[in-house]
Write a structure and sequence with these properties.
The protein is of the alpha/beta class. It is built from twelve helices and eight strands. It starts with 10 loop residues before the first helix and ends in a 5-residue tail after the last helix.
Length: 314
């Protein structure tokens, strides 16, 4: 009988007894928080891990305690950097069993990436969209893509008519929600396109963790978020919102990548080390919004993303 995991499960608990020797994994964003913990536990269980980071010096300092981790440069807010990273990985030709698209930013002030995209959509979604698709042929049959999304996808569906907020008012969490919904939809469509070859994709919510992810949030933004959380708690009871530790937060990533079955997680959204249920309420109480798993929405996002980055992927 398989073990039952949940909200409080840690990475070490999820991977207890799991031998990852011979597995090769790419983890984006290994300069802090969940990325560092994910790389640590995978290597501890025998996997070979390649991590990406925008700031190599910061990443090397943050992972100094992890022996054997390879780190390569990749700034997801610059498609030139993303493409250079992908080209280098393709040239090396080494296959991956799992790609964990972990890196991201949250609720930052309005801005644009090096390519002129709204910062959160451009970094969280489009950067990973190009990187993953350019190296997709390196995924082994039976491989998986794990996209880190968020319960924050409830803040907004994608807006394919105005992805850069050119005609709509910018809101930090609205933009974050768009990018996190995009992470789920990207997994849905990637899974559809690749499952015949035995490659599956899933998206995960790590939970609320106090990491560097929230470094851009102003006091006003934080106060607004906490007001929403308070409202959710009052509606759902005293245990509706709890912070996770970093090892608890990274647990769902490794569960979806190595423990949950491919058919169980493929094309799905996972939280607390299980597949989330569809919900109709737009609060932070858990579950996944129907628009985030909608197949036609996923196809439309893929087409729009190709148009935005000027590149088509099979």
């Amino acid at each position: 009988m398989s073990k039952a995991f949940g909200f409080a499960s840690t990475t070490d608990e999820v991977l207890e007894g799991v031998d990852l020797r011979g597995k090769r994994v790419l983890v984006t964003g290994v300069s802090a928080g969940l990325g560092v913990e994910t790389a640590r536990v995978l290597i501890a269980h025998g996997a070979e891990v390649v991590g990406t980071a925008r700031d190599l010096a910061k990443a090397h300092k943050a992972t100094a305690h992890i022996a054997g981790l390879e780190i390569v440069e990749c700034d997801l807010a610059s498609l030139a950097s993303v493409r250079a990273c992908a080209d280098a990985l393709m040239a090396a030709g080494n296959k991956f069993d799992v790609i964990i698209a972990n890196a991201g930013i949250m609720a930052c002030p309005r801005g644009t990436t090096a390519d002129g995209f709204e910062t959160q959509f451009g970094t969280n979604h489009l950067g990973h969209f190009v990187l993953v698709n350019r190296i997709a042929s390196l995924l082994k049959p039976g491989g998986r893509l794990v996209n880190l999304s968020s319960g924050g996808h409830v803040f907004s569906d994608v807006n394919l008519d105005d992805p850069n907020f050119e005609t709509t008012d910018y809101n930090e969490f609205g933009a974050y929600g768009r990018s996190k919904t995009a992470n789920i939809l990207f997994a849905v469509e990637f899974d559809r396109r690749h499952k015949a070859a035995g490659i599956r994709a899933t998206a995960v919510h790590p939970g609320a963790i106090q990491t560097e992810l929230g470094r851009y949030m102003t006091k006003e933004v934080i106060d607004g978020l906490m007001a929403q959380i308070k409202a959710t708690q009052e509606a759902a009871g005293p245990d509706a919102f709890r912070y996770k530790s970093v090892p608890q937060g990274a647990a769902t990533s490794v569960w979806a990548g190595f423990v949950g079955s491919a058919d169980q997680v493929g094309g799905k959204y996972c939280e607390d080390c299980h597949v989330a249920e569809l919900v109709g309420t737009s609060d932070l109480g858990g579950g996944v919004q129907p628009y985030a798993l909608d197949a036609e929405n996923a196809k439309a996002l893929w087409a729009k993303s190709e148009e935005m980055v000027g590149e088509r992927f099979p």
